Amino acid sequence: MQSNGETMFFGNVQRPTSNFQRRKVGFFFAVVLALLGFGSMVRAAESVLLDGVAAHVNQHVITIGDVLMAMEPERRQLIVKYNGSALQGKLDDAYHETLDGLIERFVVLDSYEKGKGRIPDWAVDKRADEVIQDSFEGDRSALLDALAVEGMTFADWRKKIEQQMIVASMRSTSIEQSSTITPEELQAYYAEHRDTYVTPTRVHLLLIALERGADSMTNGAYRVTAETVLARLQGGEDFGAVAREVSTGRKASEGGDWGWVDPAILRPELAQALETLEPGAVSEVIATDGEFYIVKLVQREESTIRGFADVQGEIENKLKFEHAQAGYKSWVARLKLDAYVKVFDVNLF
């Protein structure tokens, strides 16, 4: 769910303006209550829903139905993942998050109306045509059919497209004003998060895995087999060929080649053995609880710290994003302070 309450699917009307839409919202709310075990409350709750006000924003009224319709995609995901009291809590959070997004949307739109800049009609028409092309393969009649099902006119839908463009434009403007990052900020961030840019040690290894017996007798026999394999390797046989022949490991068909790995993901016994090996060397037989192993270290790359020049672009992008988010939130907060916003306490879930 997007934080600004905007969605591009065609069922997201702002309030149930037709009988069809009111029935649809009422049915949706009835389903929610039924899922939560409040079947006896459905009839009374529907009445509250259709007439209830979630918030006033300047001259705008946000109904409970507006919020429920906007949060519907999130609701569908939540009812799959949660149930009972956990579902109630998640739905309540989603309701308030969606309401905040709708409030934000209206204060941004009102700020746009107070300004002098305007999105030209041709730009809105162009965007509308793009949506029709992308969603309906350019078939305008298919769009009209979809809108009819939702009880929405083309003019209503076009207005919604325009409002989405306005919010996006206003958001972009607010972000541009807060996205400048100084060289000092970049250096300070790098110094503070230096450990983040450490490249861990990695090893390229070949591995032969052999079964280990469950008791002392079979364990001894398997140990002899492992020692015999090691002797073949020490005698000059190719490690990969021997691995394909005798290894029971999952990389046996690839000659036991595990490629480059972080030693930290290996069993402690293997990681410890690799620490003492030089590139090209083969270990002794390594015993673990379940298997015998023989490893060959092909190559080792020691841990390094990526230099500032290598990560400067990453840091700048990260800080720009963080500044943009903070700047936008601050801007919206100022808009809300200058607006009349009244939120009603509604406990639906």
Task: Describe the protein's architecture and organization.
- The chain has 349 residues and is of the alpha+beta class.
- The chain has two domains: 19-179 and 326-343, Porin chaperone SurA, peptide-binding domain (Triger factor/SurA peptide-binding fold, Orthogonal Bundle); 201-302, Chitinase A, domain 3 (Roll).
- Helices cover 58% and strands 13% of the residues.
- It contains 13 helices and nine strands.
- The chain has helices at residues 19-35, 42-51, 64-70, 72-81, 84-114, 121-136, 140-150, 154-176, 183-192, 216-234, 239-246, 268-275, 308-338, and strands spanning 53-57, 60-63, 198-199, 202-211, 257-261, 286-287, 291-301, 304-305, 341-343.
- The protein has a four-stranded antiparallel β-sheet, sandwiched between helices. Strands 2-1-9 form a three-stranded antiparallel β-sheet.
- Strand 6 (286-287) and strand 7 form a beta hairpin.
- Helix 4 (72-81) runs antiparallel to helix 5 (84-114).
- It is elongated, with a radius of gyration of 32 Å.
- Mean pLDDT is 82; it is low at 1-27 and 34-44.
